[in-house]
Amino acid sequence: MDTVSLHLFLRIADLGSVSAAARDLSLSPASASARLVKLEEIIGFRLFNRTTRAVSLTTDGAEFLPYAQQVLETLQTGIGAVSGQGAAAQGLLRMTMPGSFGRMHIVPALAEFQARHPLVSLDLRLSDEVLDVVEGAYDLIIRNAPLADSTLVARKLASDQRLLVASADYIERRGAPTTPDELSEHRCIVLADHNKWKFKTARIVSVPRSIVVNDGEAMRTLIESGMGIGIQSLWIASEHLKSGRLVQVLPDHPLATDSALWALYPSNRIVAPKVRAMIDFLLERFQPVPPWER
């Protein structure tokens, strides 16, 4: 397998035409077709569905595509490192992030990132599922959870302080609890059925499952509507706390958490300039003090 054939594969995928990709790489159509056949023989599966009018990626070809991109980008990064010439950030950056955090704090900043790095294109997955960064062929994953992946390199972006909050209307109607034990007398909104709330004193309190929800922004809306007390990250609740739409509950009994906001990437890969550029951009944005703590 040679790099010209991999470049050819990527150009055919981009242009949807063997002949157009051949012209782009200064190859004859016959040579390009022969290289493509040889590449498919080496890897053991078809990359494209071919008709007289067009070519399209097979399911296997679409799955192979990001890995081919990574091979060529890693090679270019290695050549740059050895030659002492830093490669420019370019190519497709595939990243995944929690839905609520991504929508609130990363997506709004991407226009600035793109202005700085116009050669980087983005493929974003916003999901609250914990996705596999290696199996999913992601270059970068943003996670707000305790770390458990020993195969990943982690850069801490910010702390993830958690608070108990409620609406002012709820507190006026039901009163504010003064101890964690009093939470059993209140309506509680829990995220994904996590109804055991742990405090820094090491005390764990099982609270009523008045409402169970699986989305942080939906949870905040329910809390603001006066439907109960819930846990919110400061990054999602800060503006609403400042405006008075939310109030902190049990401020003298802080919650315990081992969670933080992390940028992670596989340890077995050379860090491509596009990944380094995004990590540096996020560190600049969230450190030393993240926007929600200013």
Tell me what the structure shows.
The chain contains 10 helices and 14 strands. The chain has 294 residues and is of the alpha/beta class. It has 3 domains: 3-73, Winged helix-like DNA-binding domain superfamily/Winged helix DNA-binding domain (Arc Repressor Mutant, subunit A), CATH 1.10.10.10; 91-154 and 263-293, D-Maltodextrin-Binding Protein, domain 2; 162-249, D-Maltodextrin-Binding Protein, domain 2. Strand 1 and strand 2 form a beta hairpin. The longest helix is centred in the first third of the chain and has 25 residues, at 59-83. The model has no long low-confidence stretch (mean pLDDT 88).
According to CATH, the homologous superfamily of the largest domain is: Periplasmic binding protein-like II
State the helix count.
10
Fraction in helix: 25-40%
Which structural class do the helices and strands define? alpha/beta
CATH class of the largest domain: Alpha Beta
Q: What is the C-alpha radius of gyration, as a whole number of Å?
A: 25 Å
Largest sheet: 5 strands, mixed
CATH-level-2 architecture of the largest domain:
3-Layer(aba) Sandwich
**Averaged pLDDT:** 88
- The secondary-structure element order is HHHEEHEHHEEEEHEEEEHEHEEH
Number of separate structural domains: 3
Q: List low-pLDDT spans.
A: none
What would the principal axes of the Cα set say about the shape? elongated
> Could you give the count of β-strands?
14
- The neighbouring-strand order within the major sheet is 4-3-5-14-6
CATH topology term of the largest domain:
D-Maltodextrin-Binding Protein, domain 2
* N-C termini distance: 52 Å
Strand content: 15-25%
